[in-house]
Every structure is written in C-alpha cells, then in structure tokens.
Amino acid sequence: DAGVTQSPTHLIKTRGQQVTLRCSPKSGHDTVSWYQQALGQGPQFIFQYYEEEERQRGNFPDRFSGHQFPNYSSELNVNALLLGDSALYLCASSLSVLSTDTQYFGPGTRLTVL
Amino acid sequence: AQTVTQSQPEMSVQEAETVTLSCTYDTSENNYYLFWYKQPPSRQMILVIRQEAYKQQNATENRFSVNFQKAAKSFSLKISDSQLGDTAMYFCAFMTYYGGSQGNLIFGKGTKLSVKP
Fold it and tell me: What is the Cα–Cα distance from B58 to A36, expressed in whole angstroms?
C-alpha cells in the first residue's frame, strides 16, 4: 500500500520566482492538506483540499495557492517567492474531510529560496 | 486561539529507560482529537499515537502510552524501554472536528528526544 508521496524532494529557487510542489495521497484517501514547516518549528497549516475545492485555509497570503485533481492528487503553488518561504513543505492525506480519520504525512519537499 | 505548548525543547534518555514528554493545549472546542507525531532526521512525520478527547481511557501503542488529563488540557507521552530508533523530534498536535468535518492539525514546537546507548 503506497503511502503519501511528494515531489520533488529538494528544490532551489531565487526570490521572485514561482514554484509548484506535488503530492499524491495515500491509496483510498480523498482529502489533502498542506503544511509549511520552518526550521526548528512545528508545521503550520496552509490549506486543505477535498472534492477539488479548497475547504479550509490557514493564515497564508494569496501567493500560496493550490489545486486538487480528479485523482485526488494535489499541487501547491507559491508565487513571488520570498526568502522566508524557505521551509519543508509537508503534504498530508486522510480518508475524508467528513471523517475523523488521522492525517498521514509524506516525506516533504525542502524548498530553499536564495 | 487554539494553541499547543511543548515546554521541553530537548530531552535525553538512556537506552531501555522510560521518558515522558509533556504537552498542554488550549481550545474551547469539546470535540477534538490529540496526536503525537515523530519526525526522525529523515523528516518523515510518523504518527505515534492518537487519543479521542471523548474517551477517558488513555491510548497505548506498544511501548508508547499517553496520560490524557482533559480538565487540565494536558496530553503527555510516555515512552517505555527507549530504543535508539526513538531518537527524533516529537510533535504534539490536536485537531478539532465540527460541523461534520475535520479541522486542521495544530502543532506544538516539538521536543527533540535523544536516546543514548
């Protein structure tokens, strides 16, 4: 049973550029959440997708946007990158946003903004 | 505001001994779930244990158990017979469930646990 997968593993960008991160949920899961984890901190919630719609959003600017595809995979897009966007980006999936199911995490994408 | 506080930035324990990690949280919700996640240097966030707030019985998973004190909003993790592979960052988190759908996870800042041989 494949777990949550994310790509790429590492990414280096420069300020002002745009980046797209990808996530495939665990088999059978239809809800995807994205988190940003700065160095030495706990993860911070960015947004959650279910049925191809953004269901909830954390305190992140509009530069952060996302998408969910019919196969439940998801993308996180960040525009106009800032140095402060350097972080580990984690994707988590769960059985359904309508359930109390646990969220399972992928290995993350390490984004470095120079 | 909903918050999670882990007051121990770092802890260490000898192999085979027992260690307890502390966590307190603040929420006005009644329906919520509590979690401990482990993040080893490989950075994969792994679920250690989960507790439903409506259950009085403390959750256990093999060598891992929790002490859930709802009135005190306290949720500590006990690791028995510590192993070298337990070395990791441990995050306490909670998630609310309301309106028929789950909320997002709210994490503490983590406790770095080192198990020494």
Answer: 30
B104 CB near a chain A CB, below 8 Å?
Answer: yes
Give CA–CA dist A111/A113, Å, rounded: 7
pLDDT value at A14 more than 80: yes
Task: Evaluate the CA torsion angle A86, A91, A97, A101 in order and state its sign.
Answer: negative
| Choice between B98 and A43, residue whose per-residue pLDDT is larger | A43
Q: Which two tokens stand for residue B5?
A: 């506080």
Give the pLDDT of residue A101. Answer: 80
DSSP per-residue string spanning B26-39: E-S-SSEEEEEEEE
Which pLDDT belongs to residue A1?
64
Q: Report residue B96's pLDDT band, with 50, 70 and 90 as the boundaries.
A: confident
Residue type, B57: Q
Residue B25 backbone phi and psi in degrees, to 5: -140, 165
- Least CA distance to A98: which residue of chain B? B101
Q: Which residue of A has its CA nearest to B94?
A: A102
Does residue B107 surpass a pLDDT of 80? Answer: yes
B2 and B105 in contact (C-beta within 8 Å)? no
Establish whether the linkage from the previous residue to B40 is cis, with ω within 30° of 0.
no
A-chain residues near B104 (CB < 8 A): 33, 45, 48, 56, 58
